[in-house]
Structure formats: C-alpha cells, structure tokens
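Researcher: Sequence recovery benchmark, item below. Answer with residues only.
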C-alpha cells in the first residue's frame, strides 16, 4: 500500500544536507554557540522580511512570548484577551507571568479570534477608567494576543482599531505565520508588524523549522527591543550587572545557522504549500467538507498554509478511514483551551465558547508540506472522495 505521510522532514533535510552540515561545522569551528554573528544576521533578516525595525532571537516561540509579556510588565491583576483555539503556549505563557487569560470565541470561517465577539465582550463586560480598560470584576485588561492560526493573518487593521479604542496593546502570536501577509489599504503588510510586538516559532515542523527549539520577537520600538535583549540574557547589562530579572531565552548559533540556510527557500516552500492548497480547494469542493477560508486575494502570501485544515462532522470516521488506507492526518486542536484541565480554575464550562468547541470536534489537517508530491496529494484526494461516496 502506498503510504502518504502527514509530514516528512527527512525529505527537506536530504535536499539541504551538505550545505547545512557545512554551516554547522563553521559554527563548531568558531566554538561560539550562543547568540553571536549568525544570530545577529538572522535577526536582521527576519526584521527585514517582516518590515519591522528589530528582531530579538530567542530559545523558542514560547520564550519569545514570555519575553514580550515580561518586557511589557504584564502580571498579577492584568487580563490578556486571546483565542481558545490555538496551541497551548499562547495562553500558558500568559498564566506564567501571573496574568489572566480571557478567552473570546473564534470566527468559524477563519478559525481566528472573532473581532465582532471581541468588541461584544468589551462592550458587555468592561468600562474605561483613568487607568485603562477594566472588567466589572476588577481585572485590568491590558493586551490582546491574536493568533494567525495555520498561517492566515487575522484582520489586523480592524483589530488595531478595536485595540486603540479600548487602549489595549496588540501582541501578535505569529508563531505559525512567518511571511504571511494581510492587506492594509493598498499595501501588503507582514504578520508580526501590526502591534507593539509580534513573535514567531521555528519549532522543527514550522514553515521555517530549526533543528530544535528557536523563536523570534519583532518590534518597531527601540526601547522595548533593548529591554527584551537584556531580559533575554538575565537582564544583564553590562556583563554581570543585572538591572532586571530576566531569563536564559537566547538563541543558539547552531539554530541560527540552520535557519539562515533554510530561509533562502522559505518563499518557494510557502508558495508550494499554497499551490497544494489550491488543488485541495478545487478537488475537494462539492464534498461535505468545509474548506479553509482564504479572505485575502493576494496569492501565497495571503495564506502560507502552515496547515490545511478542513471541517466535517464526520471527522473521526474520516480520519480512521484515511489512516487505514495509509494517509496521515492530524488534529489541531482536539480540545479548546478553556476546556483544558489546567485552566479549570479560570471557571469556564462546556458551551461557553461554542464555535471553538465545535471546530475542535470537526477539524482535520491534511498533508500539505512542500515536498509532498502531486501523486501523493492525488491519493489523499481520491481517498477523501471515496469516503464521501464520490463516483
Ligand atoms: C500558535 C502558537 N503559539 C506559540 C507557539 C510556541 O512556539 P514554540 O513551540 O516554538 O515554543 C506555537 C508553536 O508550536 C504555536 O503554534
């Protein structure tokens, strides 16, 4: 039986192996493993790619978010609004700094935080005081962390309008969206550039993946960038003098070397993902599945398809059917965050965020990595068609 993997990193590695090994040897010969020139070069490249002034490379996407929240002094008594349909780190990090995550439901078409529901939440539950936006039970709402899920940007101009009106900081979780764009007037802007700061993950399975954990913050704010650079390294400035309590959130030079080498291919890889997505869109239309939204008519930049996620009430049966025929799929994410056991103390219950809950029970990610062959994709499409009784 021909098998189609959900994802296969070996294929990418085989193609780049010799160049990457040379780069790794260069770092080994330098014996300079933490931060240094490779990391600096990578920071400069990511800032340029995202149209921002500063990149601050970190040990992971999670640590990049932590760094932003710490630098903005978010903590006890503060509320941070975010989406319940995302990877755990988005909200886990908010809790780790002592702040309270407040979940607002998602848009069923884009899977991203619903801006209409965000406004509704603010109107219903919050008042504006001299010290900012406060909920009726006394939580000071200071920031919104939208997630550009699966590589599709939220409507950032609209989100910024709401954030400005309520004096909230906009922090973009762009972990899955490096290089994704959204239109603002007549220009295309890049994920990460809309708010006070944005962050990316280079977890190995991301569109741009390291050989381990790595992440990046981007910002236009020079003061914030300087503070994050210090916090990333135990608040040390100069050596062995600590004005702030930070952490060890630094990127390794080995990761920067891998990422710099792969960066040259990112555009080609993301456009191949988009091409695969277009074929799924054409070939799966007419079946009883909901296809992912593609609201921005700007080619591959409008959706970098970190994942291609369909919806069907038959999700579990379809997944088993495909698995039995050698086709790999994945579920991102099976349980919305407000229902995670560790967030029980936040007091949410089933039914509170119905769209996220429904999407979590119906979503299925199909293979969409750049090295997936046309023949493999045709097999995925054939099997899905068979499942739904296509003649
Ligand atoms: C939406 C989202 N936020 C945050 C993260 C955290 O990034 P990392 O795994 O690099 O710590 C991820 C990565 O998986 C993610 O997908």
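Model:
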């Amino acid at each position: 039986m021909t098998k189609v993997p959900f994802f296969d990193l070996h294929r990418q590695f085989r193609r780049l192996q010799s160049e990457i090994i040379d780069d790794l040897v260069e770092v080994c010969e330098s014996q300079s493993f933490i931060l240094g020139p490779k990391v600096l070069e990578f920071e400069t490249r990511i800032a340029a790619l995202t149209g921002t002034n500063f990149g601050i490379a970190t040990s992971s996407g999670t640590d990049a978010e932590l760094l932003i929240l710490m630098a903005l002094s978010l903590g006890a008594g503060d509320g941070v609004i975010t989406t319940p349909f995302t990877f755990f780190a988005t909200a886990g990090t908010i809790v780790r700094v002592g702040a309270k995550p407040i979940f607002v439901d998602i848009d069923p078409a884009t899977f991203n935080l619903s801006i209409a529901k965000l406004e509704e939440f603010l109107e219903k539950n919050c008042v504006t005081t001299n010290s900012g936006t406060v909920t009726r039970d006394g939580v000071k709402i200071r920031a919104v962390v939208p997630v550009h899920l699966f590589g599709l940007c939220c409507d950032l101009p609209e989100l910024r309008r709401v954030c400005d009106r309520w004096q909230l900081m906009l922090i973009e979780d762009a972990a899955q969206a490096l290089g994704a764009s959204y239109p603002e007037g007549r220009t295309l802007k890049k994920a990460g550039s809309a708010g006070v700061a944005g962050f990316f993950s280079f977890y190995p399975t991301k569109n741009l993946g390291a050989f381990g954990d790595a992440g990046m913050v981007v910002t236009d704010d020079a003061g914030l960038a300087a503070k994050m650079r210090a916090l990333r390294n135990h608040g040390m400035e100069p050596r062995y003098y600590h004005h702030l309590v930070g952490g060890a959130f630094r990127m390794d030079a080995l990761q920067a070397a891998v990422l710099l080498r792969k960066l040259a291919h990112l555009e080609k890889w993301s456009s191949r993902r988009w091409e695969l997505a277009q074929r799924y869109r054409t070939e799966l239309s007419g079946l009883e599945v909901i296809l992912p939204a593609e609201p921005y008519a700007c080619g591959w930049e409008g959706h970098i398809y970190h994942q291609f996620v369909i919806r069907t009430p038959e999700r579990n049966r379809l997944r088993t059917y495909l698995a039995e025929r050698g086709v790999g799929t994945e579920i991102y994410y099976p349980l919305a965050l407000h229902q995670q056991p560790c967030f029980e103390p936040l007091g949410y219950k089933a039914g509170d965020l119905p769209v996220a809950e429904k999407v979590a029970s119906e979503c299925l990610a199909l293979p969409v990595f750049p090295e997936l062959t046309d023949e493999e994709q045709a097999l995925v499409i054939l099997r899905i068609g068979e499942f739904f009784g296509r003649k």
